[in-house]
Amino acid sequence: MVLTAEIREQFLAEPHVGALSVVERPDRAPLVVPIWYQYTPGGDLWIRTPPGARKARAIEATGRFTLMVQRISPTVRYVSVEGPVTGTGPSADEQTREMVSRYLPPEKVAPFLDFERTHIGEHIVISMRPEHWLSSDLGPA
Length: 141
Description:
Helix content: 25-40%
Order of helices and strands: HEEEEHEEHHEE
Number of strands: 8
Structural class: alpha+beta
Distance between the termini: 8 Å
Largest sheet: 8 strands, antiparallel
């Protein structure tokens, strides 16, 4: 069953790990990688990544990407969105904390932020406006 616009946006707003897909080279299948993301219904979706990452370079080259999220319980449900990049810039401290807090328990946030600062380094934020949606819930009606 296809999800209504309201249900699919609420589902996308939940903290699932996304599968980001972007065309990296015309002679290859798309690059697909797991990623944390943030989305508020009706707004743009955004991700964080190191600026030199393969996915960042591919997104910059193509100007768009796809993100798919899913669950398997209590029913199989997925939402996939594709659209153009609406902005790219440095990741602010508030965005970093917001993203990490979305996925980790409170006691793990500060250690992760310290680790990222000392071992991973700079990140950028890439925003995307969802233009095309695919969604389904395979549970009972």
